[in-house]
Structures are given as structure tokens and as C-alpha cells.
Amino acid sequence: MKHAFLAFLAALFFGTLAYAAPARETAYFAGGCFWCVEHDLGAIPGVVDVVSGYAGGDLKNPTYENHEGHFEAVKVVFDPAKISYRQLVDRFWPLIDPTDAGGQFCDRGHSYQTAIWVLGEAQLKAAAVSRTAAAARLKTGKMVTPIYRFSSFTPAEGYHQNYALKNPLRYNVYRQGCGRDKRLKAVWGR
Predict the structure, then answer these.
(1) Could you tell me the residue ranges of all domains in the chain?
(2) Would you please indicate which residues are annotated as catalytic (active-site) residues?
(3) Which of the residues in the chain have pLDDT under 50?
(4) pTM score, two decimals?
(5) Is 152 exposed, middle or buried (0-12, 13-18, 19+ CB in 10 A)?
(6) Which CATH architecture has domain 23-188?
């Protein structure tokens, strides 16, 4: 009986150790106001988490009040068993206007420009192939969204996280007032 109990404990212990958490991957995107990008990418099946923040700049601790040189961006954690990196990038394009080099919709300036940051050669290749395919689908304009190698990402302040869920009325007034969906229809024809 003692040996059976010890065998049970060993199986329980080693079985627990053998459990591996599901694989997760990370992607980084900028598409104008991070509230909108966070909201839209977060609705995609296979996306586990989306964090609003600041990417691509040189400041050590960017904030909403001072993120000069940084893009408003999102960090996307996703389950590659449910959606591949390439599929995620393909889903990103119709959420932005990749033909506008000056910002997005009513938000103007460097902080609101579009971009993709890649982690490694596989992401670079997938993003580039996706970008070419998306450029061919544009109904107006020319693709200007750059692809960069990842350099930095700092999460935004807490009040920016899950903004659309926490403030649905304000979010919807902002989104509609900015003309985001109307412009996306013109760019993508949907």
C-alpha cells in the first residue's frame, strides 16, 4: 500500500511537471490610436492579450504626455495553434489605412503613423509577403506602412488599457467622430 501511494504521488508530481503551458507568440503593430487597434485586434480568435503602449522610440520611460519619437502601438500575444503570425498580420491590414503617411484618420503626426515591428526572420518574411498581398487589395492609394525590426515597447498607463471595454460610450463617439470606419471602407472597399 505504501508503494502504491508513493507511486501515485510521484505520478502526480511528475505529471504536473510535465504539463507545459500553451505556446504563445508576440506581435507588435501601430495603427493610429492604440485604443482602436487594441479593441479590433483583441476581438480576433486566437488573440490572448493586447496591451496598448509606445513603440519604436528612444525615450527610456515614455508616457502619454511625453512619447516623442514613439508610435502609439500594441503588443499582441496570440496562440499560434489558433492563428498564425501571417494570419494575424493579414487581419491587421483592414483595420488601418496603410496609405496615410501622416497619421490615421483624425489623429495626425508621427505617434499615429502605422507600422509593424517584427521579431526575427520568420516574422519579417511573413509580414513582407502579407504587406505585398495587402497592397494589391487596396482600392485607393499606395501602401506606405513600414516594417521594422523590433526595438522597444513600453506599456501605456493603466487608463489606456482596455479603453473601449471600460469606456464604450466615449470610445464609440471617438471612433465614429474620427471617421475611422468610413475611411476603412473607402480604402478596402468593404
Answers:
(1) 23-188
(2) 33
(3) 9, 17
(4) 0.88
(5) middle
(6) 2-Layer Sandwich (3.30)
